[in-house]
Amino acid sequence: MTALATTLKGIKFQRLATQVIALALLAAGSVLVLMPMVWMLSASLKTKEASTLFPPQWIPRDARTVVIDGRECYIYAIPVEGQTRELALLEKKSAMGTFVNPDNPAERYELRVLDGRRISDVRLHWENYPKALTQVPFGKYLVNSLTVVVTTTIGVLVSCTFVAYGFARFRAKGLGMLFLVLLSTIMLPAQVTLIPQFVVFSKIGWYDTLLPLIIPAFFANAWDVFLLRQYIMTVPLELDDAARIDGCGPLGILRHIILPQAAPALATVAIFHSLWAWNDFFYPLIYLQSKEKWTVALGLQSFQALYSRNLTLLMAASTVAMLPCILIFFFAQRLFIQGVVISGIKG
Amino acid sequence: MEAVKKRRTISLARHEAIWAYVLISPWIVGFILFTGGPMIASFVFSLSRYDIAKPLQLIGFLNYAKLFTDDPQFWHSLQVTLTYAIIAIPLGLVAGLALALLLNTKVAGIAVWRTVFYMPSVVSGVAVSILWMYIFNPRFGIINWILGWFNVKGPGWLADPQWALPALIVMSLWSVGGGMIIYLAGLQAIPTTLYEAATIDGANSWQRFWRISLPLITPVIFYNLVIGIIGTFQYFTQAYVMTDGGPAEATLFYNLYLYRNAFRYHQMGYASALAWILLLVVLILTTLIFRSSAAWVYYEGELRRR
After folding, report:
1. What's the CA angle centered on B191, arms B190 and B195, to 5 degrees?
2. Do B42 and B67 reside in the same domain of the chain?
3. Could you tell me which of A70, A219, A269, B265 has the fewest CB atoms within 10 Å of its CB?
4. Are residues B89 and B24 part of one domain?
5. Chain-chain contact of B24 with A167 (C-beta, under 8 angstroms)
6. Interface predicted TM-score (ipTM)
7. Residue A340 confidence class, pLDDT cut points 50, 70, 90
8. Between A and B, how many residue pairs show a Cβ–Cβ distance under 8 A?
9. In the Cβ-directed half-sphere of B22, how many Cα atoms lie within 13 Å?
């Protein structure tokens, strides 16, 4: 009896120890994972000078200054005759500096600069955001990106739903083989079809328009068809039969049975596709030339080239470009996880 | 009577077939227009000299001959891509699996951890590339600041030909959360009865990992491996935005080299030959993995069917 109790205690202790170690490792990992994001946000709210300080300053601060004799001077907290005073550094000669009382510039002290500490105040420079977004026509980029995201998402949802429904619920000669062809195109690297597509789109005058980015979405893609088909297969056939008895045709069944049942899978497809379209850089890069056609990804890249010396504006623009993805992620986490599981495990 | 019945079943079957083909027609048309047709064209391009402006000129296998015998850049880009694949994919696999195992210990706050680690995978593309360019900045970036904690003086990263590719590998580890989610789902699908039985038989947690968890999630590892290889040959945005293949071509990924040939030098024929070689390499690698999978991927009918 006591032996059993000791064993149980041992197991309990072991479990607790595992928990503590796991938590510590996860916490350390999270700090590393979150650090780039926090650094970005912090840099986007700093002054240009503060953004490239080393070691990094995590909370944006401005040095406090005062204008004396027409010169901008830093304010220091510095000990004078036993008490710490806030004085402005007027002039610096090697290690020593001339400090003055900001309220009474006649009151001067010669002190060691290293004994003092520059005073700074927390200040978030939100104005970096409007500044970054107006340096280049981000509004236009945003409209273009949203146009592509919304239209292609609709295209993918509509076309893939029909195709997946066809593959999941109907029998016909050759359908099995066609499904294998479809599956094999998942593995096909896009580069193999890229160049002829580019040539054709150029020849029909679609170069430098959004059309090459939008139109192909309306012809279904293997990955999303596969995901939707897998999901539709799990909808009980009895529901179809019941609807058929009630007089529904194939489209009626699709509308009244399949669509409501497959709603989570459709939402997953919509989310993954819109994220992909928002982040896509390659296709806009090769098809869009004139600035007013650019998407956010393209605009951001040229912004980087133009403002590589202004970290605050760059980080503000990057934050704005990432924000929609992060917001969607937080509001639809369950769909994300589920989507990964459908495509990863059952695949 | 019999004849009527037969005719009706035939017409029903035909009715179903017509519906099937009508429903999948968007994909069939799309396949012909955007996949099948372009594939044939791309192969013809690869046998020609073509710059869009002038008419296409067939030259046989000259492009391929030049690739293999007279293009050090091609071999270099292949080497860069394979080096990245050989290091980054296994590192990502191990890190993702390790994270998933930690989360699978019934640790508190699993939803929060999962969110944190998965978040980098939803942001990708240009904004992330820009962010990491500055994280790797040797003067004020936070990577070298962190290394400073351990008294390590960080290298020049993206500015240093020796460290640019390692930098991109480090960056890839930021988004191991994507793989983690899949491993975690795989681990959670393993019936707890297996662990209980093993525990009763006296297996410790180390043995339970090697004998139960690992074999049962080999299909997931297999899946991530194949996806990883295909992804590495598509690697583009980071290399284009962060280094443009440099410094000293140290990050000239295969896809970037292909892009340059097609859209900077306008050698559509040569770029098409590169694309076909890419397809061949990916096919060989995935076939090797598929072949080897019989030896290390565990498929149990019972678990697969669920």
Report:
1. 95
2. no
3. A70
4. no
5. yes
6. 0.88
7. low
8. 261
9. 8
